[in-house]
Amino acid sequence: MCTCITYENGGFYFGRNLDLDCSFGEAVTITPRNFPLTFRKAGQEARHYAMIGMASENESFPLYAEAVNEKGLAMAGLNFPGNAFYQKSDGRGLELASFEVIPWLLGRCASVKEAEEYLGNMKIVDTAFSEKMPPAPLHWMIADHEKCLVLEAVGEGLKVFENPFGVLTNNPPFDYHRINMNNYMNLTAHSPRNQFSSELGLRPYAQGMGAIGLPGDASSASRFVRAAFMKWNSVAPQEETANVSQFFHILDSVAMVRGTVVTEQGTYDITTYSCCVNIDTGVYYYKTYDCSGIRSVNMYETELDGDRLYIPKSLEKNHISPTLRVV
């Protein structure tokens, strides 16, 4: 259960809500250019673009949920159970495990256009990171200033969709979300006009009635529509503080409150964290469920030619840019 969006208002921003019923050991992680990225079937990249994002803390490989590289290319993986299908490795073509897709593409591609050159030959294979960490069923959104795509590994192979909405949630597949949006073309941020009948004197009795019908539940289809409506009707001054604030307000509109979504196991999905990255400056902003103060980490305040991962110390009570430690 997740929501990912892009946002452009003078600057360009990329981020997401990560909705889960538990922690996955997440930590803001900077992968410098000379940290060796070793892929199971695709060799090793000794030098690559630097990147920053939220990852499961691990010393040997950055297990990113989302990240942006130093060239301004951003990517996120979102839960896609029941539809994600990973192939068996046969040693032919470009084979990547699901946990390798983000660091491989961001490590070598400066733009969506460059990434597209690899997608026709790419296979997502069912390789697990470890025995205790089986392949996560995911689909991905990848974006830069110019273009936004959705990647879905399904039974027919890897499907690539242009995403004009700049929004992605979870199941169903993106094709459904794209068609479903047509059901809401009548929504407006303005006061509605009476189109019911010219013979009836119907008129609005309150502000906001133009968006009656905007879904408010936590399902992925509803969150997709709501996030898109908020994004495309958003108005903010074109400066950093206002843009970052607005971005988090959009994400808050589709966030999950503990107790409102009960899983089949009887646990509660919550918005574990929300993040927003300025892809031009490399500043990663984030907040957590239990600490709503927005913190930031600047990728360029680290040694990007280093060869070890940098992970900020956790500062749950301090809303300032945390210091970094090296693993």
Oligomeric state of shown chains: single chain
Number of strands: 19
Shape by Cα distribution: globular
Largest sheet, strands/sense/barrel: 7 strands, antiparallel
How many helices in DSSP terms? 5
Please bin the fraction of helical residues.
Answer: 10-25%
Helix and strand run: EEEEEEEEEHHEEEEEHHHEEEEE
- Estimated share of beta-strand residues: 25-35%
| Span of the ends, CA to CA | 30 Å
Q: Mind telling me the C-alpha Rg?
A: 20 Å
Give the strand line-up of the largest sheet: 3-6-7-8-11-12-13
Task: Decide which structural class fits the backbone.
Answer: alpha+beta
Provide the low-confidence segments as ranges. 315-327
Mean pLDDT across the residues is: 93
